[in-house]
């Protein structure tokens, strides 16, 4: 008995920051699959703003 299948929800920072999950999310997913877990559904639950606030960095962006 026990857990043998999973539905997975991925979440990135979202909002005004990055909307893609980092490399750790992909590595964790791969590790679960390799350990013999059946993966049913992968859902992205990253928060997406309906009216964007201003991003930090100013008008000309971050200058290096």
Automatic annotation (TrEMBL):
SUPFAM superfamilies: Translational machinery components
Positions of the UniProt region annotated as Disordered: 41-64
Keyword DNA-binding (UniProt): no
GO terms (BP aspect): translation
Family designation: Belongs to the universal ribosomal protein uS11 family.
Keywords attached to this entry: Ribonucleoprotein, Ribosomal protein
Protein name in the entry: Ribosomal protein S11
InterPro entries: Ribosomal_uS11, Ribosomal_uS11_CS, Ribosomal_uS11_sf
Pfam families linked: Ribosomal_S11 (PF00411)
GO cellular component, one term: ribonucleoprotein complex
Basic residues bias locations: 55-64
Keyword Ribonucleoprotein: yes
GO MF terms, alphabetically ordered: structural constituent of ribosome
């Amino acid at each position: 008995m026990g857990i043998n299948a999973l539905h997975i929800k991925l979440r990135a920072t979202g909002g005004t920051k990055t909307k893609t999950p980092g490399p750790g999310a992909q590595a964790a997913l791969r590790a679960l699959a390799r350990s013999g877990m059946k993966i049913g559904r992968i859902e992205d639950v990253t928060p997406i703003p309906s009216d964007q606030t201003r991003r930090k960095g100013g008008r000309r962006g971050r200058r290096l």
